[in-house]
Design brief:
The chain has about 350 residues and is an alpha/beta fold. It is built from 11 helices and 10 strands.
Length: about 350
Amino acid sequence: MLEDRTTAATTAASGAPWPTAYPQGYAVVDVETTGLSRDDRIISAAVYRLDARGEVEDHWYTLVNPQRDPGPVWIHGLTSEKLADAPLFADIAEEFGERLRDRVLVAHNAVFDWSMIAREYARAERTAPVRQRLCTIALSKELGLPLPNHKLESLAAHFGVVQRQAHHALDDARVLAEAFRPSLRAAASGGVRLPLLECRPLTEWTDGPRIGRQATGSPNSAYGTTGWRPSRKRPACPYPNPGRYEDGKPLKQGMRVAFSGDTSVDRELLEDRAFEAGLHIATSVSRLTSLLVTNDPDSGTSKTTKARAFGTPVVDEAAFGQLLRDVAPADGVPPASDG
């Protein structure tokens, strides 16, 4: 049983067999930000470096001046006064990068932390030296941990880790590192494949006026004076729609996928990944929609309302990221060769 496997793994001797395919080191990361949108900034960052078996090597923490309002101070406690003399991200990018170099980035809801980090490096005209990430939410699902929800506090409580200062990057990173160690050992003990995803650097950030899409002035728009890239029309999906997504099974090329609400990863980049995997990007939800991706299924938007009415399967962004790892080929299309 997975619970027995978890218990056994937490007490496993250091000399126990270890999967040779597992990474050689990890960088457990937490960042606090001015908000959750694509134009928000990092205001503090922490990294715990771990060895191949999850033992702590060292840790690092810094404040970052976002050059803007710090956002929800009541959550992170970092006021403009506290951040006034902090370094800019460009000033700490090299040191931050050395903490990440040649390691797997580990975070709780890693798609968010990675996207914020990637944007900051793009703004600084640099590239973060990390190529893979691991989400502890996804790992807890792989292990079948009996958690009431996927909050960090629930994962910590499961492993008896005490949180001292929630929403402080250094303490959150410490808590996650201490919870990740037994999770990693449980995975190793049970031969579980780690849910590793590629960290794709962003290289198209511009600070000048955008072209290709009119700036609307919307407060939530990523297409004002800064943004990612011009909008473009994608070619039609070449594969027939195989029907709805079924829980526990892989996505299949040709499935119609719709998105609703805010996403941690820039929406166009997320849609690009789905299109490149052979999925059809749907702009609305109908009876033909295979899957709706939303981080807020109870939001009451037209898409979530239609999804409930039609019985369309719904998954969150983190789960969708996992599904994108292994999209099955369309009927009649041979699987891609690893060679």
